[in-house]
Every structure is written in structure tokens, then in C-alpha cells.
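Postdoc handover notes: sequence design on the structure in folder B. Input C-alpha cells:
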């Protein structure tokens, strides 16, 4: 089971009619955060959200620790 939470400053759906939600596991873990923290997603700065600054901090953590997509290419 998962819990879906709406962001209070985001619309209900995006322009493609996809439902915009944060996804929590039963243990309280926020899947969106885990994906960014482990480098499997980025913090989308194009749209503001309640959790944007947290996602940016987690993205920086993933970059610093070369996790996920931040480890896939060498700098030239």
C-alpha cells in the first residue's frame, strides 16, 4: 500500500493530465525523495513545489556522492 499526497502549490494534474502526487510507503518513506537522493531523479526547478528546496538539497547530495545518474559520465 502507498499513500498519495497532493502538493498544496501545484495543480492537481500536469499538462498531459498526469496526476501529480508525492508517494509514501507504509513505513513513511517518501519515494520521490529517495529517488532524488539516490540519483535516480532530478529536482525539477521549472515548477515550484512545497518540497523543491529539499529535493535540490538531496540532488546536491547525490551529485557530491556521485550516485545514480551523477556517476554515469566522466567530466571532460
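Designed sequence:
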Amino acid at each position: 500500500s502507498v499513500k498519495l499526497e497532493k502538493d498544496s502549490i501545484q495543480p492537481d494534474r500536469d499538462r498531459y493530465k498526469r496526476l501529480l502526487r508525492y508517494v509514501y510507503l507504509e513505513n513513511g518513506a517518501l519515494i520521490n525523495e529517495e529517488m532524488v537522493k539516490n540519483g535516480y531523479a532530478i529536482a525539477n526547478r521549472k515548477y515550484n513545489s512545497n518540497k523543491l528546496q529539499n529535493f535540490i538539497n538531496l540532488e546536491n547530495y547525490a551529485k557530491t556522492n556521485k550516485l545514480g545518474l551523477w556517476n554515469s559520465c566522466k567530466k571532460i
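Context for whoever picks this up: The chain has a mean pLDDT of 94. Don't rerun without checking with the PI first.
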